[in-house]
Amino acid sequence: DDRAGYECIAVHRDVGTLDGCATGSLCRGAAHAVDAVMGCDDGFTITGNTATVRGQRVDLFSAHPQSGNTSANQQCRKAYLDQVLDPNAGLPLRVAPRAILGGDLNMDPWRTTSADPEVVTWNTFVTPHNDDVTRPWKYHSGAVEHEPPYWSAWLVHRTWDHVISDGYQGRCVTLGAAPDVAPLDFSAGAQDIDLLDHLALWCHLAPR
């Protein structure tokens, strides 16, 4: 992204391109962060770029808002999510008719109180029901994969990693949690310390 390269967005060169990035290239600064929020750690944010995938334009967002369970951390997550999820926010990065957002959101909307500010924002704009026309963003992971959702942050027994979209249908699998599906780091050692602290999501999506 355009901060310090903490996060990245990629499109396989066989299926599409990213704006501002030559095919097959590693481009620093091609993804842009949402507006900074005063008082929040700028090492965390949500970044985005627009891609052309199989001839269709789509905004791709890599989400990693602030961690921690303090009230201030919750407000920071809410402030970042508001900029992307709210269709009235006027975010300049949201330019394509469809969008996909994925990443470590540092929140579990199923295992924390629904009154937490970031969960209120999330539940206002995100729904597991494809026929819900009042909320534009649809789940592809979490409860639509399994109920209760598999832990993705397995060390703390929380589902912090999510994939949602505005304009797609499909479902994700939590690698290493879903039955008979190996984790992404299956070749790591047997000790917990050798494994990634988050499980990866593998998704098959198609335009609605």
Set out the fold topology.
Layout: E1 16-18, E2 32-33, E3 45-53, E4 56-64, H1 71-85, E5 98-104, H2 117-125, E6 126-127, E7 137-139, E8 161-166, E9 168-174, E10 201-207
Parallel strand pairs: 4-5, 6-7
Antiparallel strand pairs: 1-3, 2-3, 3-4, 5-8, 7-8, 9-10
Helix pairs in contact: 1-2
Low-confidence stretches: none
The SSE order reads EEEEHEHEEEEE
Q: Tell me, what's the shape?
A: globular
Sheet with the most strands, sense and barrel status: 8 strands, mixed
Proportion of strand residues = 25-35%
What portion of residues is helical? 10-25%
Which value, in Å, is the CA radius of gyration? 17 Å
The chain-level structural class is: alpha+beta
Overall average pLDDT:
88
Number of beta strands: 10
Distance between the termini: 29 Å
The number of helical elements comes to: 2
What distinguishing features does this structure have?
single chain; 208 residues; alpha+beta; two-stranded antiparallel ribbon; 10 strands; 12% helix; globular
Task: Describe the protein.
By secondary structure, the protein is of the alpha+beta class. It contains 2 helices and 10 strands. Strands 1, 2, 3, 4, 5, 6, 7 and 8 form an 8-stranded mixed sheet that branches.
Please summarize what this structure is.
By secondary structure, the chain is of the alpha+beta class. The protein has two helices and ten strands; from the N terminus they run ββββαβαβββββ. The chain is 12% helix and 26% strand.
